[in-house]
Amino acid sequence: MNYWPLLGIVIVVLGFALRFNPLLVVVSAALATGVLAGLDLVAVIEALGKAFNDNRYISVTWIILPVIGLLERYGLQQRARAVIEGMRGATMGKLLVAYLAFRQVTAALGMKDIGGHPQAVRPLVAPMAEAAAQKTHGELSGGERDKVKAMAAATDNVGLFFGEDIFFAIASILLIQGVFESAGYPLTPLQLSVWAIPTAICAFLIHGSRILAFDRRLGRVRR
Amino acid sequence: MITYEWLYVLAGVGFAVWALLSLRDRLWGNAGFWALLAASFLIGSHVSDLVNGLLVLAMVAIAGFGGLRRSDPSTTSVEERQALSARLGNRLFLPALVVPLTAVAGTLLYNYTPFGETGLFETRRETLILFGVGVVVALVLAMLWLRPPWLAPAEEGRRLLDSIGWAAILPQMLAALGAVFALAGVGDIIGGVAGDVIPKGSVFLTVLVFALGMALFTMIMGNAFAAFPVMAAAIGIPLLVQQYGGNPAVIGAVGMLAGFCGTLMTPMAANFNIVPAALLELKDQNGVIRQQIGTALPLWVCNVAIIYVGAFLLWN
């Protein structure tokens, strides 16, 4: 067997480790892999162009940026902070655990577009978490602020990933079904989606307790 | 019938406007990059694969050699925003909520009411198309209500887009890399190697290698969808299901979730890990990943346990 195409993977790993520009790394890996597999360079460029073109729908979502930017111009982030500051008993821990539950449940019901980084985390969840953390722990340093924002983004990811597979009509469930069916094991989407529930519960317990521990740790440093 | 092609024109026009505004600011690299992306959206369906490939290479050349810079269009100050937020109140959330509500409510209506029989949208494309509709509705509402300067939405959008920079097209580029890898047969090679390294006869070790392969290959490809067919064909189906008689539903479902743990730990999953770091203006590009590792590792262990217990101990 020709193992040379695996060099593409080595390029990806090394390129990221050495902090080259990721676009450059990805395209170099694609060109190298194709050529090492015995295709000619023009054919590889054509394959890359076709695949990039076929996947344009992934980048369509950026059309939301003017809406979010415009609302930020009129104080959307400040409004999100004010809502949290007005709530008694709101802490970053409680807020992010509540968002985790909300994200998992809505994703499990098939509403995975209700959160997301451009439309929910940047304008709403991250400023709310920051405001709640400052309310309980006082002014945060730059590094602490970044950690709070990163935790807000992480919570969105964990909630989405480990909620969405409970919904049976999601792409990943359909992919699993397709792979097993072509190997002679017909499964219904529902059979698969129920087995996403134990992991969803583990994800909620693990990430939820990490959020609360993070909130306590922020507080301990300042006392 | 409304197809993705309509969305591509909408996005293409948006990127073209951003290119023109960059040109006005003399940000030549930005102008070129967004103009090439606009061209890909507007004419991509009508030109040859080779032309599309050359567009990709030109964009990568600009971004790869540091041609993209952050722009600084004029906007409101923090004090002004504070005052505006106090005056406008919680109504500010409404336009932001229009987009997800249109996408979700529209999808439900389209799939469960006679509305779907109109055949208005391309099949299985309705959610993203409705997302686009929601964006247009929200933008029109916000413009009528707030009455900002005409160019404000474009300039504010550019401010956000340039803070994301080249990372905006990385997810699409990774999808393209996946296609080239598939063409070159990388999956089959990895599957063969993985199949060779497992010691015969140990169910638990096989589960471990399967889950590890899902996580590692997902980290390399940035996407569990690319890893799943490979690992299922190499280990999941021939060994775990056929040889050791495990429950296929558990192995499939939880195997995929073990891959998702890998997604949490890799910069290759750019839209989940790198894009938010840019959007939130974190100093550390890997800040989001750092917060996720502590969740991903124990959760991966849980997935191994769930496969072993659910697919073998409880099943047999």
TrEMBL record, chain A:
Q: Which residues cross the membrane?
A: 56-76, 158-180, 192-213
Q: Does the keyword Transmembrane apply?
A: yes
> Out of the domains of life, which is the source?
Bacteria
InterPro entries in UniProt: DUF969
- Keywords on this record? Membrane, Transmembrane, Transmembrane helix
Could you tell me what this protein is called?
A: DUF969 domain-containing protein
Originating species? Erythrobacter mangrovi
From TrEMBL, chain B:
Pfam families, alphabetized: DUF979 (PF06166)
Question: Per UniProt, which keywords does this protein have?
Answer: Membrane, Transmembrane, Transmembrane helix
Specify the protein name: DUF979 domain-containing protein
Q: Where are the transmembrane segments?
A: 6-23, 30-47, 53-71, 92-112, 127-146, 166-186, 198-217, 224-244, 250-275, 296-315
The highest taxon in the source lineage is Bacteria
Query: What is the native source organism of this protein?
Result: Erythrobacter mangrovi
